[in-house]
Automatic annotation (TrEMBL):
Pfam families: ABC2_membrane_4 (PF12730)
Keywords: Membrane, Transmembrane, Transmembrane helix
Name the record gives this protein: ABC transporter permease
Source organism of the structure: Caldithrix abyssi
Membrane-spanning parts: 18-37, 57-78, 99-127, 133-158, 170-189, 195-214
Source organism superkingdom: Bacteria
């Protein structure tokens, strides 16, 4: 059953995923060109000084990419389901609502995580061309909250798409935006490191909360 759901979601997501993959690679190329240019123009010692001691976030163009990925994936995945009421048919498959909903959301999550892996792998390669591994670790800790924000946007978006009550949709949207916006208050290096476990737990709550909206949708609750 999961393979059938995966294939159904793959058909919807494959084109968008390819476009997002190309965009992600272009972002990495832009970071590489920026780092290469600064290294040549300013010299290695000066550029190292700016990156290590002045906290020059040469990779900050990646900060909003996870939000783009999350928004595109959830829109492509759930707009057809809700506009044609296909989700109601899917929920009548010979499996529990919980299994179907979590399987559907897991497919989108897998696609997003694959794109995240490509982004982080590309960033790792660029950083290791010019800097020690410690700079990548610092960059990873700095970017992780943004990656979780993208996942939270996807999970919250799925919950909002499925929710049948417009008042609750608005409340869920406001709550989701407050949480996501909080992860962008500070773009300083490693600003959210101590809060990462809590951010991760809160993000997971959005992934599980989709079950509540899904069960209400299944019953036709308003």
């Amino acid at each position: 059953m999961y393979l059938a759901i995966f294939y159904k979601e793959w058909i919807k997501l494959r084109s968008a995923s390819l476009v997002l993959l190309i965009i992600s690679v272009l972002f990495i190329v832009q970071i590489w060109l920026t780092a290469s240019y600064n290294m040549r123009i300013n010299g290695g010692e000066i550029y190292w000084y700016y990156v290590i001691y002045r906290n020059d976030l040469f990779y900050n163009s990646l900060f909003f990419l996870p939000l783009i990925i999350g928004a595109v994936v959830v829109t492509v995945q759930f707009t057809p389901e809700m506009s044609a009421d296909r989700l109601k048919l899917t929920l009548h498959l010979p499996a529990s609502d919980t299994f179907i909903l979590l399987s559907t959301v897991s497919v989108g999550t897998i696609f997003i995580c694959i794109l995240y892996f490509v982004i982080l792998a590309g960033l790792f390669l660029v950083i290791m061309m010019y800097f020690p591994i410690q700079i990548f670790i610092s960059a990873l800790l700095t970017i992780l909250p943004k990656l979780l924000a993208g996942l939270a946007l996807y999970w919250a978006g799925a919950m909002i798409f499925i929710e049948s009550n417009w008042v609750k949709r608005i409340l869920l949207t406001v709550a989701s935006l407050i949480f996501i916006q909080a992860l962008y208050i500070s773009n300083f290096i490693e600003a959210y490191t101590r809060m990462l476990p809590g951010i991760f737990v809160i993000s997971l709550v959005f992934s599980i909360s989709v079950l509540i909206s899904g069960h209400r949708y299944r019953r036709g609750a308003r």
